[in-house]
Protein 1
Amino acid sequence: MSVLLLCIVVAVPFLALLVLLPIIKNKMTGSGMLGSKDIPGLKSQNTKNGNLDLVKKRGSLHEFLIWLHQQYGPIAKFWLGEQMAVSIASPQLFKETSRMFDRPEVLMHIFKPLFTEHAIPFANKEDGKWRRNTYDPSYSHGSVMRCIAKFQTLAEELVEKWSQTPRGEHIPCRQEAFLFTLKAITQASLGDYFLDEEQIIQFLKAYDVCWYDMEERLTGDIPQPGSEREKKFNNANKYMKERLAAAIDLRRKTPTTEKREMLIDVLIENNIPDDMLQGELISFIIGGFHSSGNLLVWALHFISVYTVVQEKMFQEVKAVLGDTGKVTPDNIAQLVFIRQVMDETLRVAVVAPYAGRYDDEKDVKLGDYVIPAGTPILYALGVVLNDPTCWPNPKKFDPDRFSPEKVSERHPYSFQPFGFAGKRKCPGYRFAYAEVATALANILLRFQVHEVKGQKVKAKYGLVTTPEDEVWITLTERSSNN
Ligand code: HEM
């Protein structure tokens, strides 16, 4: 009996140690739990920067992730400064994490001075879910359909302005696309405050100053306190916030009896405090015009090169819009090929290259791997959008990849340009498709779009992918019988 007791007293702690040691070790080194495989990937190059020097060397986080996954496969770890992160790049791994809601701060903290810390991109858990439930109806299918007439008017104004351009003169496509999408989102989200073209241009200029500075910060280039660069950023940022404060003020003073579904009204009705109110509006406006503006620029660029695609779009627009020549809530869903072109543009241009999630309470089990609680998980959306195993000859622009038959053959998570996880997909995806489709339909009905020969259009990958320089196009007016 006493021998048995001795065995128990000695053996139990020994066995417990055997079981616990690997777990403790794994927690300390960033590898998985007992029975799980080590996550492949990089060691930290130095404790302060982690692998950020490698990110810089590759040019951007997206280009770094392409390289990382080529080296290590669909799941790979690396170090964002002192923080280990795990990037995943396969439709199956996306699916397995598709219930996660919380976004890790490390991905977005650089953008805090612009969005403000009170804004939705930084909200997690019940607070984040409440905000999404409360704001999402402003960009639901029904709300977007009620915006189509607005998009149509803006598209007509754009086309009218372009028709005044002397024949053969180059059009600055990026600037024009951004003005269009900025007008669309401000009018749809703020009401009538931003109707003046000059004000919109000033807002866009201030935004450009801020955004380029933020993108520099993403590669580790932070402005010196008190430097000219910092002052320039602060002034531009202040200008945008003042314009928003004026819009909020005007809306508060505008009495109405109609049901209000606009974001600004929803925020006011819910007594959202002023600093948070500004943060939410700036997040939706920037989210709303920058990515969609880039979708429009890239689409115009691609169709100026792929003229057969452009002709097919024109034939569709002519047939669908008929004699009225207007996009309406009744006909927009019939612009099926235009939708295919927008999807192929989102894929080839990789308009939004990544998103991210984390679980700060529990380890995340992914196949044979366990990701320790609190580790940022990056969704390498752009890597998957150009993965040759999902998309043969991925660099080729081919909207037929999105024909219904081809779509049904693919894993549904292979095309997720708006994110997918935890019901936190981009809230503005319907809005983006509708405004860009309306712009494209109106442009194509009136003009043939040509590339400027010799122009090299190069992508700059940041939080959003934008052309490195202005994209120029030329137009010829279609005669009424072609
Ligand atoms: C082509 C156009 C667009 C693309 C590619 C795009 C892409 C994305 C992506 C990938 C995310 C991250 C989603 C995630 O974490 O799972 C996101 C978030 C967001 N987008 Fe968009 N977006 C576009 C247009 C818009 C529009 C038109 C709006 C406004 C109406 C908008 C507002 C936002 C906001 C506010 C968030 C943050 C939501 C949150 O934190 O829960 N986006 N977008």
Protein 2
Amino acid sequence: MEKMRMRGATLPGNSTVEMKDMEIPKPGHGQVLIQTKATTICGSDIRCIYREHVGKGPEGYIPGMVAGHEPCGVIVEEGEGLRRFKKGDRVIVYHISGCGVCNDCRRGYYISCKSRFRQAYGWQRNGGMAPYILAEEKDLIALPDELTYKDGAQVACGFGTVYEAIEKIGVCGNDAVLVTGLGPVGLAALMLAKAMGANMLIGVEMNDYRIGLAKELGLVDYVFKPDEAMEGIMKVTNGNGVERSIDASASDPGRQLAIRATREWGKIAFVGEGGTCSFTPSPDIIHGQKTIYGSWVTSLWRMEELVERLVRWGIHPEDLITDEFPIEKAGEAYALMAGGNCGKVAVVFD
Ligand SMILES: [Zn+2]
Ligand SMILES: [Zn+2]
């Protein structure tokens, strides 16, 4: 019998997308075949794979792999030995398949697994930019009925990452929250901080499209361009600065601002990847009793907690999606995301 085939998007580098014809895989022991419903594009796809293959070694993109590490879909075929999930279940794929038995994996942080068995979807194994994706049952998060597949795709990486950072610094109704960099990750940070009751939301961004989007979505009380930001933030916080800040700009000035615009005893989280940060410890953090947290992706259990809370809060990550493409137009989707005049970009499937 002839095997069923499909076409998936691969990223050869040099800002190109190549469609690849392949067999639809059969799930083995402990695996499921998922019919992909939505896969969103991450900043890391652009920075580390699409423009050029940046990562080397075990964390590098393997040329020819189907891209897409933010997939969400429905199980259409069960492998043997499944313990929890079944055909028909709507699922998010945690985008790293960890070895499952190292200390990091046992904490749920597959992202931090250093085993040679670690594989990221869309990097070292086929990801979600294809009509079907082969996944390990242990990597799945159940998608509640109240959330859409597009909501789920965003949880798989971006919202999970932001939620982790926010839980580390803690955000509540006492807090003015500053977010530097209003790309999809920064907008997600504002959306979650708002749901947690932050009493003032401040954004800093230079791209006019993204400033407009943050306003349109009702995610900012104040938004400043970088050169006017410090003065503006001090003005709206009575000269004290914010209680919490999150850097999603990944830029040196954005990070410096996040540190200096945070008041005494405040907490700062860095989630934007790459680049450097220069600051002067004594005046910038030590004398102000401030804490800076680094935060990388999230754990399986926190992702489960996040989907539960999204339902309780009644918010939808898909609201950040500004542009959708079919898989045949994946090239346009990546090009738009690379240009930056967009919110979140999604590839959606029938
Ligand atoms: Zn990502
Ligand atoms: Zn591991």
